[in-house]
Design a protein that fits this description.
about 150 residues, extended, about 5% strand, mainly alpha, Arc Repressor Mutant, subunit A, 2 strands
Length: about 150
């Protein structure tokens, strides 16, 4: 028979309602919920959409830069790029100055996919700004970017 463990002192901690990691997850879910429906219609995952948007924004680049900009781990990115390439949305080519690397480029099909859904994406974003406040969204983005830049 197991003896009950003696009561031990548990360090004081924040309530989950005031936990930054949990608040960030809740906010992410609120923001992503309407976007997921759009992505399902586009037949791409959240991560694939992020990669396409990064490539559209910065142009041809290597996997390391994509992983950084799209907040992905390299093993995941490798799988994601393979899926995008199979769909004809991205292409890889030799890096002009570093034979060990490859450049990843968004294809015309990838650009067309974004073009077909960018109006819906902008509508969703506009609804969020209307509900939360455009200025508050900008302040929140500034604060989150500042938080992300903190050194460990």
């Amino acid at each position: 028979m197991n003896k009950p463990s003696p009561k031990r002192q548990i360090p004081q901690r924040r309530a989950t309602a005031r936990s930054l990691p949990i608040a960030l997850l809740r906010a992410r879910e609120r923001v992503m919920q309407p976007i997921r429906a759009m992505l399902a219609e586009a037949n791409v995952t959240e991560a694939q959409w992020r990669v396409l948007r990064v490539l559209e924004e910065i142009g041809p680049t290597d996997a390391t830069e994509i992983a950084h900009e799209a907040c992905l781990l390299m093993p995941s990115l490798t799988r994601i790029l393979q899926g995008l390439e199979e769909k004809g949305l991205t292409a890889r080519s030799a890096h002009p100055s570093d034979g060990r690397k490859q450049l990843v480029t968004i294809t015309l099909e990838g650009e067309a996919l974004i073009a077909r859904h960018i109006e819906e994406s902008n509508r969703i974003y506009g609804e969020l700004e209307a509900a939360f406040g455009e200025d508050r969204v900008e302040v929140l983005l500034d604060l989150l970017n500042e938080l992300a830049r903190l050194e460990r």
